[in-house]
Specification:
Blueprint: E1 16-22, H1 26-35, E2 46-55, E3 61-66, E4 69-79, E5 82-92, E6 95-96, H2 97-108, E7 119-120, H3 122-130, E8 135-149, E9 152-161, E10 164-173, H4 176-186, H5 196-204
Antiparallel strand pairs: 1-5, 1-10, 2-3, 2-8, 3-4, 4-5, 6-7, 8-9, 9-10
């Protein structure tokens, strides 16, 4: 089988990912930056503001909204401790009640709220979330620095979750062995691998568990 070459910003086969969150990954970040091959200038530093929709009853679908577009990914499998996620749905606002009924709220795995309109703006949708006992909208700002180590797409980031500042670091690829080598090379062996959904739930208190090195 021909190994797929990773390219930052390009669509590839579903990737596996290692990611962790905590207060200090300075040493690993330093090694990641030094080991990285040159990367496109557009990924040197990126910033974005996003809203994640958390569900108390679901950890299998990851929903975020950025620039008026909704993106839902679904968990596929774990291989050697690395998670693989696939796109489940992409949509934008205003969004139809039909899509909310058939795709969005089923992904949250919660009771369906009453939908009294044919379509909903972003603000109206957030209103539905805020009025649901099992859902919560969380504002997340990301400052991300991109790298490429061992042909894996890497980043170090400063993430603000409802005002709480944490650091994150990751490596992703279609090739599990390349990620494992990167984890070892940058000094992240033994560090917990968790995704954004789990990290945000811990920060806001939906899960009673700390992040790495806290």
């Amino acid at each position: 089988m021909v190994k797929e070459k990773m390219e930052i910003g390009q669509i590839s086969k579903p990737r596996f990912e290692f990611r962790s969150f905590g207060q200090n990954f300075d040493n690993a970040h330093y090694r990641m930056a030094r080991l990285s091959v040159p990367v496109p200038e557009k990924v040197w530093e990126r910033q974005s503001s996003e809203v994640y929709i958390l569900s108390r009853t679901n950890d299998l679908n990851n929903t975020k909204i950025r620039d008026g577009k909704m993106d839902i990914k679904t968990f596929v499998q774990t291989v050697e401790g690395l998670e693989q996620w696939n796109p489940l749905m992409k949509g934008e606002f205003p969004i139809s009640a039909e899509v909310l009924k058939n795709e969005v709220f089923p992904a949250f795995q919660v009771d369906m709220p009453a939908l009294e309109k044919d379509e909903y703006t972003y603000d109206e949708f957030i209103g539905l979330i805020e009025n649901h006992k099992d859902l919560q909208a969380v504002r997340v700002h990301k400052q991300r620095f991109g790298y490429m180590v061992n042909d894996t797409i890497c980043e170090y980031g400063i993430v603000t979750i409802n005002g709480a500042r944490v650091a994150t670091i990751n490596s992703e690829s279609t090739e599990v062995e390349d990620i494992k080598k990167t984890i070892k090379d940058v000094g992240l062996e033994g560090v917990e691998n968790i995704n954004y959904l789990q990290a945000i739930k811990r920060v806001v208190g939906m899960i009673n568990k700390p992040l790495a090195n806290e």
